[in-house]
């Protein structure tokens, strides 16, 4: 008997969605600031850096929130570990793709975008707590 209960809540109503939205907004704002201050290459480098953080986080959120309920506890824990492993692999793969495939690239801007998105995710408890519930 399968004790897993699929989570039928739409993705945009799950707890991680507001965090992903704020990470995406921060990524765009950092990219725009870099574009204005340092030029086009810095702008798209910052955008790519943010996406290297946001895309794996979205994958992780999808995996972790696939199941719900007490009967799904084992499945949720399993998804937590496999989601984190997948997130790390996806992050490394995206960095490799960007570093190999995008020329010219402004390294400082790439990492500024990445760290801005990661810092936003690190403050996710504040974001989720302040997000209005419907």
From TrEMBL:
<keyword id="KW-0472">Membrane</keyword>
<feature type="transmembrane region" description="Helical">
    <location>
        <begin position="85"/>
        <end position="102"/>
    </location>
</feature>
<feature type="transmembrane region" description="Helical">
    <location>
        <begin position="16"/>
        <end position="37"/>
    </location>
</feature>
<protein>
    <submittedName>
        <fullName>ATP synthase protein I</fullName>
    </submittedName>
</protein>
<feature type="transmembrane region" description="Helical">
    <location>
        <begin position="108"/>
        <end position="128"/>
    </location>
</feature>
<keyword id="KW-1133">Transmembrane helix</keyword>
<dbReference type="Pfam" id="PF03899">
    <property type="entry name" value="ATP-synt_I"/>
</dbReference>
<feature type="transmembrane region" description="Helical">
    <location>
        <begin position="43"/>
        <end position="65"/>
    </location>
</feature>
<dbReference type="GO" id="GO:0005886">
    <property type="term" value="C:plasma membrane"/>
</dbReference>
<keyword id="KW-1003">Cell membrane</keyword>
<dbReference type="InterPro" id="IPR005598">
    <property type="entry name" value="ATP_synth_I"/>
</dbReference>
<keyword id="KW-0812">Transmembrane</keyword>
